[in-house]
Amino acid sequence: PSPIPRHGVSLRSPSPPHGVPLPSPPYRLSLRPPSPSHVCPWSPCRVQPEGTVGLSPEEQQRWARRLAQHVIAATRTLTRLFLVHSLPESLKFAFLFYLLTYVGAVCNGLTLLGAGVICAFTFPVLYRHHQAQIDQYMSLVRNHLSHLRARIQAKLSSAKVKPQ
User: Fold this and answer.
1) Region annotation Disordered: residue ranges (predicted)?
2) Per residue in 46-95, pLDDT tens?
3) pTM
4) Where in the sequence is the domain holding 63, given as residue range(s)?
């Protein structure tokens, strides 16, 4: 006698599916790793020839120095912003993070990363195609901002009480 199944579950192994089986030679061919003769030239499985990959020791040192300079500059800038060495810069930095909370409420970080990657490759091409128009509008914006800045500075300097 077979055991009594609990809660309607049978203890016997399930029967094999009654579908159409794949012939074994093509199935085995699809599971084996690619051989060097079947690898495309752009495939990551392709064997790299010796001596063509890598940087010379001088280039490695130059890139390491540049990376160290960038890391040091970024560390100094972040230290200056977080420790409030300059109040206007730190307030701009805090306002940027405040705005980013609203952006983060609307978009996921991966969405922003994907949009950034797309923009990084799209904007240079668009600029090359429409360079004259973009430069014309950017000069108009720069002129408008410089006039606005001059008016604000004039009002701020006239609002100050002059010592007698």
Assistant:
1) 1-27
2) 666 665 557 888 999 999 999 999 999 999 998 988 888 888 888 988 99
3) 0.38
4) 58-106
